[in-house]
Amino acid sequence: MTLDRPGKGATMLWKFTLLLFCIRLSLGMTSVAIQSQPELWIETNYPQAPWENITLWCKSPSRISSKFLLLKDKTQMTWIRPSYKTFQVSFPIGALTESNTGLYRCCYWKETGWSEPSKVLELKAPGQLPKPIFWIQAETSPLPGCNVNILCHGWLQDLVFMLFKEGYAEPVDYQVPTGTVAIFSIANMTPESEGVYICRTHIQMLPTLWSEPSNPLKLIVAGLYPKPTLTAYPGPIMAPGESLNLRCQGPIYGMTFALIRLEDLEKSFYRKRPIKNEAHFFFRALKIHDAGHYLCFYYDGSNRGSLLSDVLKIWVTDTFPKTWLLAQPSPVVQMGQNVSLWCRGPVDGVGLALYKKGEDKPLQLLDTTSIDDNESFFLNNVTYSDAGIYSCHYLLSWKTSIRVTSHNTVELVVVDKPSKPSLSAWPSTMCKPGKAITLQCRVPYPVLEFSLEWEERATFQKFSVDGDFTISNVEGKGTGTYSCSYRREAHANIWSHRSEPLKLMGPAGFLIWNYVLNEAIRLSLIIQLVALLLVVLWIRWKCRRLRIREAWLLGTAQGVTMLFIVTALLCCGLCNGVLTEETEIIMPTPKPELWAETNFPLAPWKNLTLWCRSPSSSTKEFVLLKDGTGWIATRPASEQVRAAFPLGALTQSHIGSYHCHSWEEMAVSEPSEALELVGTDILPKPVISASPPIRGQELQIWCKGWLAGMGFALYKDGVQEPVQQLGAVGREAFFTIQRMEDKDEGNYSCRTHTEKHPFKWSEPSEPLELVIKEMYPKPFFKTWASPVVTPGARVTFNCSTPHQRVSFILYKDGSEIASSDKSWANPGASAAHFLIISVGIGDGGNYSCRYYDFAFWSEPSDPVELVVTEFYPKPTLLAQPGPVVLPGKNVTLRCQGAFQGMRFALLQEGTLVPLQFQSTPGNSAEFLLHTVGAEDSGNYSCVYYETTMSNRGSHLSKSIMIWVTGLLPKPSLLAQPGPMVAPGENMTLQCQGELPDSTFVLLKEGTQEPLEQQRPSGYRADFRMPAVRGEDSGIYSCIYYLDSAPFAASNHSDSLKIWVTDKPPKPSLSAWPSTMFKLGKDITLQCRGPLPGVEFVLEHDGEEAPQQFSEDGDFVINNVEGKGIGNYSCSYRLQAYPDIWSEPSDLLELVGAAGPAAQECTVGNIVRSSLIVVVVVALGVVLAIEWKKWPRLRTRDSETDGRDQTIALEECNQEGEPGTSTNSPSSISQGTSVELPVPI
Fold first, then answer.
1. How far apart are CA 857 and CA 808, in angstroms?
2. Mean of pLDDT values over 509-525
3. Which of 173, 242, 872, 1103 is least surrounded, with the fewest CB atoms within 10 Å of its CB?
């Protein structure tokens, strides 16, 4: 079955173009192809009679063409080849005659051949204006409707354009544009805007001379029916040559369905008659160009259409591209930590599966919904068994012949914490005034870095390479408990166990007496200065009055007085100590960025545009200079603080070195990096730079190109082939040397090239010499306050080192901005303070510092990211699974921003440095708080900022409070007057805790943020809920916590369910042991409700009055005379509201002998009775048969009995005669026979 393209399809497509453009704008999609159709129009020098002399003009949209062609009636009329490339030419026609009338179009020559022809211009007989053409165009507009622009092309300039609507005699709109096209806008399309429109033109000087009406344009507002659903079978990702079925299903029968591909609206409109309420669109053999975004709709016979379905993306590919897998926070993790394996691929709409080498089945699966929510594979509490090589595969639920390429893998290494070091103090643990103590952290093997922590100050942290830390005891502030840890080079992100704590103590009372002594000395010095000045004045007055003229007396007195003054000033300086001087940072106007853009990736020099962008939002204007002298052009700054300088096709006159400046109200910026254009067929020369190399550490070499979408290659002198190559990664690339050694020293350069063959290479950059030099350890660098600041704040950077007599330099984004040599004058450890008095938006960035002496430089310090907020909208911060969590559990804080590609930072109230940083390609970041404890309780907020333009950040998010519960006894929660109230009444929830002066929090199930917080003076908080509504129903709980350290919180109270209703919910009714009465047995009906303190009532169908009342809900039912059989229901009322009854429960039926169970019992009895009758009848038959046999048995028995008796008598007589042998048989025959009477 093939796809139908009927003639009416084009009409329907035209009618639904409006809605398609609105959907295209809402999806953020743009047209795939650049408009290549030329423009054709008429010019004349006879405005009142244009047919007297006509000239046709043809204009190319690409502005570069060498040939133009004019067609008449689909045949070639003439063509022009101008002497130079231009974008428009003229075709003189002269006076319009019958031979000149016809249909005209024009084309222009492109690199691949002739372009599409222009719109058709129809010239008719003299005295008639050309017929205008009419079409629609969508524009970006606010909700709720879609704005439509109707364009009318009249072919001549200075015409009057009239817009007519069917059914209206007068025009609905008119315009007099300066060009040949009028734009009529219909704002917020509604059903009232539907109709048939036409356009007509006339000459301004001749209002009676009208053109013919344009072709009619019918506008129909779609969306009168619900949208259908569009699904793909067997799946949305298929290989070329496979078959695909797209099923469009709607809720209405008998409609006509249509399928559209957004990438090609005019050529991909398919119409299909339905099968019931759905239609199937078959692709017998898919091709690569069938891939794209599809949607469908349906319409009735009056062309009234539905909403468009959701967009379905179809992929047609031979091979799946690679997936990439990233382990966060690192592939080397400590045992017991959590690891997120972040897997993504360029193909969306497909699930992902995580595999481990050596196992056949996937460990975890992610469906498309989870991928859209930026979820990742999560390994919790990793052990040694979790170590291994992991890979990520696409997960398809249908069969396809698409080949799957190899996958990127991540090797997960699980290590345990290194053993704890030892910490000692030299010369002792007793702090003496003016003396320093060296804390020595030691382990028996080499390490990368040591860290020192001070338990009394959570934000205190020092780093050292050799393990020695100098602690000064200025004003007694060095005392406290210290511990240290370290990390090894093999696993730089894993710190060891902390050492045993070491306590430094000071002399008793030292702090108090030192303070009192200082204050006393200062006060006495002030008094001495005032007294000495009074003595000088008195000596002068006394000398005049006594007329003492000896000069030596006055000189001696004044000299002694001045000696006392100088001595007092020196003492004042000694008592106050050495003042730390601050170096103010004079920020230069931020340097702008210069780059080039082109729409010809393979030949960029054919059309170049230079862009200049400034990180300062106060920039007013940009200036582009060539070779440092000639002023090229100026451009006002746009809202994005950037300006474009179009150069067009690159010629010999354009060759040179370019840079740009940004102008503010009172200053001009430093020049940008120089962009050098060296030829018409050569890419601009890139710029290469790197930080000073350090032996054994990673080094990144930065290569900056000038065009996007270029490839990069790094070269080393003496090596013919590139050392490293990178694909299209933007306008800049970073080449990484994993471990800098002596073999890596040398001169390096980089080049850029076009991404596709044949490669076009740039000139090599200037050489960069990498030489490993011996360096001092990096200094300790920090800000005195939080590095996340608002505009106008004061920021002080502190750079310090144990080395003496060194100079410091401050860097911003790798450029030197300030220096300080004032530490040369002070003995001991060196430090410098750099001050920004008022931070501006352009002052954000990555700051670092270094120090140096006559011989060596130090390594750069760790960078400090200064973020200036309040430039972008604030993000939202949510806690998952919620802000109330038990100790030892994990909490994920999700920060959602407004822009993609930003860097996110998580902040906690009371902590100067942000807790975590995260850079994501999307617009959100997830921060994991692992195994939270009491110290994790507090207020959290987040901020996002861009890393390319001075770290301009957003407003701080609304803070969210995290409570770690389970550390205090749980409270109790009660409702007054009760858990059920009618709408509009007042309710109070009372939370009773165990500790006074705590903060109580009211929570509701299903709501993440707390409803209310209170800090009463006692043990109980009353949360008042005035005029409750239906949405106030739900399950409530409460907690309480301490406002100060350790911020412990209680467990949740028992849940309390609240009903806001006029009638309580209905109860449940059940029977025990069953719903069937048995002989002599009763049934207990159990009525149960959701509220305590209620009274239950049982009702029986057929009885007006309630049958029984009960407080526990149990009712005993007997079946005397069958009165217990029937349907029962129960209800209840609150004791506090005796007039309000709940809804009755569902009916429950009790059955007796007449019921189904009784019938079953009767059948059993009948069967048993029948068996008894059969047994009795069988027994009777047997007795009858035996009775008939009785007479014969009786006769035979009597004869036998007589004979037996005679024999017995004879034997008895023989025994009575002596000497007679009883054994002789003859004796029997010979004896005398005696007859005796025998009884019968």
1. 10
2. 57
3. 1103
- Digit-coded pLDDT (tens) for 255-295: 888 888 887 765 666 777 777 889 989 888 888 888 888 98
Give 876 or 78, the one with higher predicted confidence: 876
Report the distance separating Cα 235 and Cα 349, nearest Å: 10
| Closest C-alpha among 655, 669, 582, 665 to residue 623 | 669
Structure tokens at 802: 């144990």
Q: Which helix (H) or strand (E) holds 942?
A: strand 938-945
* d(C-alpha 602, C-alpha 756), whole Å: 7
Q: Read off the tokens for 1062.
A: 């006029």
pLDDT at 574 over 60: no
The 3-state secondary structure of 620-631, one letter per residue: CEEEEEECCCEE
- Backbone phi, psi, residue 591, to 5°: -75, 130
Write down how long the chain is: 1240
Q: Residue by residue, what is the 3-state secondary structure of 728-746? A: CCCCEEEEEECCCCHHHCE
What is the spatial distance between Cα 155 and Cα 133, in angstroms, rounded to a whole number?
Answer: 9
Cα angle 705-709-712, degrees, rounded to a multiple of 5? 50
Alpha carbons 656 and 650: distance in angstroms, whole number: 11
Q: In this predicted model, which residue has the larger pLDDT, 246 or 814? A: 246
Q: Is 1223 left (phi over 0), alpha (psi -120 to 50) or beta?
A: alpha
Q: How many CB atoms lie within 10 A of CB 299?
A: 21
What percent of the chain has pLDDT above 70?
A: 76
Q: What is the pLDDT of residue 555?
A: 57
Predicted confidence (pLDDT) at residue 509 exceeds the cutoff of 70: no
Strand pairing class (857-858; 775-776): parallel
CA 564 to chain centre: 71
From the list 1045, 784, 1053, the residue with the least C-alpha distance to 938 is 1045
Residues 830 and 805 sit within 8 Å (Cβ to Cβ): yes
What is the tens place of the pLDDT at every residue in 964-1011? 877 788 899 998 888 888 888 889 999 998 888 788 999 888 887 788
Q: What is the pLDDT of residue 938?
A: 83
Q: Chain centroid to CA 421: how far?
A: 41
3-class DSSP state of 897:
coil
DSSP lists the bridge partners of residue 1088 as 1068
Instruction: Dig out the tokens for 147 from the structure.
Output: 């704005």
Q: What are 393-431's pLDDT values in tens digits?
A: 877 767 676 766 656 788 888 877 787 888 888 777 777
What dihedral do alpha carbons 1202, 1203, 1205, 1209 form, nearest 10°?
130
Contact predicate 967/1045, CB 8 Å = no
* CA-closest candidate to residue 178, choices 160, 163, 164: 160
- In SS3 terms, 159-209 reads as EEEEEEECCCCCCCEEECCCCCEEEEEECCCCHHHCEEEEEEEEECCCCCC
d(Cα 463, Cα 478) in Å, to the nearest integer? 17
- Reading phi first (left if > 0) and then psi (alpha if -120 to 50, else beta), residue 98 is in alpha
What is the pLDDT averaged over residues 520-536?
Answer: 73
Structure-token pair, residue 366 = 């992610």
The region of weakest confidence among 142-156, 350-364, 1074-1088 is 142-156
The two structure tokens encoding residue 347 = 């193909």
H/E element, 1208: helix 1190-1216
Q: How many angstroms separate the Cα of 81 from the Cα of each of 66, 69, 89, 1107?
A: 6, 9, 9, 108
Contact by Cβ (8 Å): 609, 677: no
Q: How far apart are CA 837 and CA 835, in angstroms?
A: 6
- Separation between Cα atoms, residue 869 and residue 954, nearest integer Å: 5
**Do the beta carbons of residue 148 and residue 25 sit within 8 Å?**
no
End-to-end CA distance of the chain: 115
Max CA separation in the chain (angstroms)? 214
Structure tokens at 678: 């060296």
Q: Which amino acid is at 193?
A: S
314-to-150, 190, 266, 295, 311 alpha-carbon distances in Å: 32, 32, 18, 11, 10
φ and ψ of 823, to 5 deg: -75, -10
